[in-house]
Amino acid sequence: MSNYEHLIRCHICEAVNIDHSQNKKCRRCQSPISSDLTISYHKTLAFLITAMILYIPANIYPILISKQLGINSESTILGGIIHLWEAGSYPIALIILVASVFVPLLKFILIIYLLITSKYKNYSSKIDKHKLFYITEAIGPWSMVDVFVVIILSVLIHFSGIKIYPGSGATAFALMVFFTMISALSFDTRLITKKIDIYKKGKSINAHS
Amino acid sequence: MISNQELDNLIICKKCHTLHEKVPLHNKRKALCSKCNIVMYQHDDKIVDKTLALVIAAAISLIIAFQFTIVTINIQGLEQSLTLSSLFTVIGEHEQYVVGIMFLFLIVLFPIAIIVSMLILLTLMKTKKGGYLSKRLLILIAHLRPWSMVDIFFLSLLVAMVKLFDYANIELGVSFVAFIFTLILDIIITKSIGFYELWEIHNEIYGQIDE
Fold first, then answer.
1. What is the ipTM, given to two decimal places?
2. Looking at chain A, which residue has its C-alpha nearest residue B134?
């Protein structure tokens, strides 16, 4: 069975490939499968940090501005959720709360956890970590719900007396979702099965020989 | 060293990455992962014809969904309707260009690109022509898939409508129904055929990997 340890799955065509240093492309679809793990690690980290920075303005700046007879009222994501909760629309408040607060935070935590455990000794099983990554990829785009809602509202409430504008928070939030998705996409699943340091050592030996 | 043929007989689960040996399936059977019970691959003799029909239907309903009014609201005699063109004019008016461009790609261009590529791909597979083109299309679809957000747009639409329910009369347009059809068809297509099956059919029709 030791032969089967270094088999990997191409993330584009799902073909099973042998993972060794000469084998840089998938045997079926020729997509790159064996990029440098340290590069993948740093790319994921960089995009994640960008997303986390963008998460701050996304929450501070208003996501929705409503102009009624010349009076502006602004609401942030959290403010909007609290307003909805007080108004009694609990299901909608919950959908927005899960989609725009819990999902991004969960994604940050999951990616950070996967990155940390790829570098240090880890105690959780590989299967669990693969499942975690699968969840991370699946929940990613759902946080766009709030941005889309604001855009739809701004199109529908567009009268001379009352208008709704998407605020700058919406732009920051949309970019945040974009960068978390890029971050998850640049995460190489081999980071789960291999430790970076070992890989580096193996690579330098190859270079010398 | 393991040969390519031996590798073709193996499959790695997309959820938990457990390695499995493939077993030949009877018609209309599914193979589940032994660890996490997710469907890994399935077999259906007429899958290309069936999916082609579904994709044509999905393409038609997507065109209708983008063409007509999605919803119209009515507040004390004032009317405003949501269509694709009114959406982009209002976004342009508010100068939200970043959101507008993301919207254009995620809701309009990528879903259309996926449907059109599927249409061409399945037609090629049906006529057994164009091996290289169908391979490129398969890779393209795999790249675009995570970026198509029509389903999320529809959920947002429902949320927005519930928000407006107390203040306005809401009339559903033709496109609203078309959106529902598109989503149902999309779910059926992704449930019945995955990339794994598509590549298997590709291998069957156009032969093994050209080195």
1. 0.87
2. A29
